[in-house]
Please model this.
Amino acid sequence: MYVCLAGCRQGFLDGCRPVIDLDGCHVKGPYPSQILTAVGVDGNNGSFPIAYAVVEIESKQSWIWFLRLLIEDLKITNGLSYVFISDKQKGLIPAIETLLPTVEHRRCVRHLHNNFRSAHSGVALKHILWAATRATTMPWWEAEMENMKQEDEEAWE
Model:
């Protein structure tokens, strides 16, 4: 089942940035499934729901199905105009590469940090990682990465 309400679609097209966060989550209970979501970013950096789908399993095929409907609803003709953000969802990266090969695709830092902290724990490293992600210039980013190297060279690598 795919749902993209007209008000959400029009609100995204009229007032949101061309940034779309894609995510999936498990539904437990008597009817286990997956929910795939597309969420935009409004002018105040808030979340703006665009569409969601309920699928049996999370796979490349289910993401392709979801993305085709989303692309059609949002009338995306030029992937260069959009940024997609996600974690490493099953099948999502190849689905995006198949349907929108020119789109800019970024990874969610929150998910990156969850993977990072399993091997490199500590508040100092967490703050350095987040400072590096907020860097808006290469010299600023390089300075933060040097801080990480000073704190923990294995984490820096």
Remarks:
- The chain has two domains: 2-107, 111-156.
